[in-house]
Amino acid sequence: MTWLKEVIGTEKAIIAMCHFLPLPGDPYFDQEKGMEYVIEMARRDFLALQSGGVDAVLFSNEFSLPYLTDVKTETVAAMARIIGELMTDIKIPFGVNVLWDAKKSLDLAAATGAKFVREIFTGVYASDFGMWNTNVGETIRHQHRIGAKDVKLLFNIVPEAAKYMAEREIESIAKSTVFNNRPDALCVSGLTAGAETDSAILKRVKDTVPGTVVLANTGMRMENLEQQLSIADGAVVGTTFKHDGKFENHVDPARVKSFMDKVKAFRSQIVYS
């Protein structure tokens, strides 16, 4: 049994993305509608996901485009306010992701009681955001300094819109990441949000680190969920749940329910040892 059962309540867990609209300080923040509108839309999307039967939610500043790797205080403050406003509605486990800043994600988790964090914790990349470096040793020490040692860490080892500065096989990345950092999960992604995770790469990672939770991080849809969940321990799902399956749209409750009905049917056929 993995920690998914203990923390989220099920194996083959579906962690749904709740994408926040642009926030104060972001280039596309709507100052006329203000934070009240951002909160209203976040609540609507969250309730659609929760009522549709997802297992957990990951709150993210997905529309803070273009992303920073050193996120400003106003972003974290705005995200904390949104989650605080939603707290009485939240009945399922949740995590947070402050793109793309691992320390700020942990700060937000500590402030809100999030159970997990997804981030880029390791590696040096050539990315759309410039050269992207990390300092996992400092990040983990920061986690313990702020009292967030029980927050589960989901390591994205195939960052979106980025590539390792040095050529490395995915098996090598997975093995060394697990050996050096003891992640709670490895996330395997496609190129961008909504882009399908390559099932062959997913399998190579899982075969390399069978004792570690491996999640399909992008692009799971109705037509590939059985194939991917037969390999992965669960998935992070965002774009699929939106109207017409488009990243920029809001959550469609009917799509959430149909997807989760199929997931639950798939899970019912699995015998866990």
From TrEMBL:
Q: Which Pfam families match?
A: BtpA (PF03437)
- Family listed: Belongs to the BtpA family.
What name has this protein been given in UniProt?
Answer: Sgc region protein SgcQ
Question: Which stretches are transmembrane?
Answer: none
Q: Which InterPro entries does the protein's record reference?
A: BtpA, RibuloseP-bd_barrel
Which NCBIfam families does the UniProt record give? thylakoid_BtpA
* Taxonomy, superkingdom: Bacteria
